[in-house]
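User: Here's a chain of 414 residues. Predict its fold as tokens.
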Amino acid sequence: MGKYLITTFGCQANLADSEKTTEIMENLGYARASNMKDLIFARNPVLIFNTCSVRQKAEDRIFGLNKKLWGLRIKNPKLKTVLTGCMMHYSEKKLKKRLPYFDYFIDIKNIKKLAQILTKGSPWRAKDYPCRPTSLIPVSHGCDNFCTYCIVPYARGREISRPIKDIVKDVKKTLKNGAKEIWLLGQNVNSYQKELDFAGLLRVINATPGDFWIRFTSPHPKDFSDDLIKAMAECEKFAHYINLPVQSGNNQILKKMGRPYTVSHYKKLVKKLREKMPDIAISTDVIVGFPGETKKQFEDTIKLFKEVKFDMAFISEYSPRPKTAAAKFFKDNISSTEKTAHKEELNEILKRTALENNKKLLGKTVKVLNNRTAGNKLVEIKNVQHSMLNKNEFVDVKIIKATSWKLSGKLKNI
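Assistant: Prediction complete.
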């Protein structure tokens, strides 16, 4: 029928949405293009952008596409272009005005309409879609938190939890198709509440037959119960890694952000996690340069980084997002230079703590799947060519070298 190409911006929720879109395109008979050149010379090319709105830079990249899309249309007038994802928080009228070379604007919640649009109502039948080694399975959509800096509730709507039977069905389908790693996704994943809470859901997924890892993201500290920590420790399929967003190390800034917990509460959570799972790797999310953040307040985040000793951190410079409370009521008064300097300072601390944590694995034999440990650390296997290594299989690797961002090891029994 033709070829398609999907460009995805943003988080794992966006990646999961792109997998659904891929399934729709494959079911319609479209083949994935290997690159833009392959796409543009296809008979019926479809170019899809799955967008992110969490940072202004992500939106700016899309708004800057007009010249490129115009050039692609010159090369192939049959090209169809689709915009979906979080940028649909803008009105379609505004998007059409600013992005005139897009043909279709589709809310990601209604992405199934893409099949009707491309086939003009022709019937199509779903077929089994071969899964990737890692399967991204949403357990909920949307968010009810309304953190003052965050556009997600406006872009994705209020939180809705999926029925457990639908989640389990997706898990079994992906395992049948070869998945070895299941990521349970939600904008606030641990506030899941349907027939069971999130701890109960984790136990249900763990009881599903098969040899696989379970991971989840992104949890909120306010919803992290003792029972969830207990479930994580008891479930043998849960891979010992967690991204636990803190956003700031200062209580006043957390309050301005609309984050209903204190630094003390956060540190107690980390302590409980490490007591139950001493080998757990912990990453976090942080925003630097939030409106009004003083040097002293930023120093509290430095203190937290040094104390907690994160394995990884995703550090973002604050940018005002439309419709959010922070954009409406707070002045973005921290310079770009200062934001960048603060980001680099935290990265230097992170570099040291990540190295310190990784060195603890030296000489140990760890379970590795697709070059990642259970702690989600990248591993380079030295004594075998990657082409000879069976992908999507668990292997035992002895760690022989550690840097801040990567481990090196040798495959056992070779």
